[in-house]
Amino acid sequence: MIDCHCHLADEQFTEDIAEVVERAQRNGVRSAIVCTEYRDQFDAVLALSTQFPSFCFAAFGIHPVQRNNISARREDATSVPEYIEEHKDRIVALGEVGLDYTPRYMNTSDAKEEQAFVLKQHIDLSGKYDLPLNVHSRSAGRPTIEVLRQNGATHVLLHAFSGNVKNARPAIEAGYYFSIPPSFTLSKEVSFIFSAYLCTYFLRIIAYRLDD
């Protein structure tokens, strides 16, 4: 079993990260894709991939919602291309990236443009380095998939996708993968997406939430 999306660089794990990794391994997790949310986490994730080389694999990206619940802006990703170029041989994916249209984070058209700019930048990097995208799409399933497809994204994992069947179909047609969100057990529509539409492209990895 592989955790396809976790945040082990979060400060809540600073004191007991070795114990967290050991506990995960005891419970059958073979490895984990450790995603960043903020630029200042890149070094920490890289360090985890050094400390636990057969377990932690690095994914770098700028989350659409930054600290203090501020929508991501292009300046948040200013140095990302240079960092990825420098460490390209140690990265397995770009993430966590995407769009988040939750009203408390997204309340202006300018904010939408800024989030889209950051996502497009990561899509370009994905193509340049042949790296998959680990994508966030809360309250923005349709526009996220539109941006991905319009900008040529080919290797995509839609993390914890919670959109509807209509929104999911273009992603399925594009060959994108989906990870299982907690809402899988609560939402009939999300359950239907996975059971009826993802037979071909269903990601055969159960997302084990280390931080739950």
From TrEMBL:
UniProt-recorded Gene Ontology molecular function terms: hydrolase activity, acting on ester bonds; metal ion binding
Coiled-coil positions: none
Entry keyword set: Hydrolase, Metal-binding
One Pfam family in the UniProt entry: TatD_DNase
Top-rank lineage group of the source organism: Eukaryota
Sites where the protein binds a divalent metal cation 1: H5, H7, E96
Keyword Cytoplasm attached: no
Residue sites binding a divalent metal cation 2 per the record: H136, H159
Biological function: Exhibits 3'-exonuclease activities and apurinic/apyrimidinic (AP) endonuclease (in vitro). Show preferential AP endonuclease activity on double-stranded DNA substrates and 3'- exonuclease activity on single-stranded DNA.
Family to which this protein belongs: Belongs to the metallo-dependent hydrolases superfamily. TatD-type hydrolase family.
Protein name: Deoxyribonuclease TATDN3
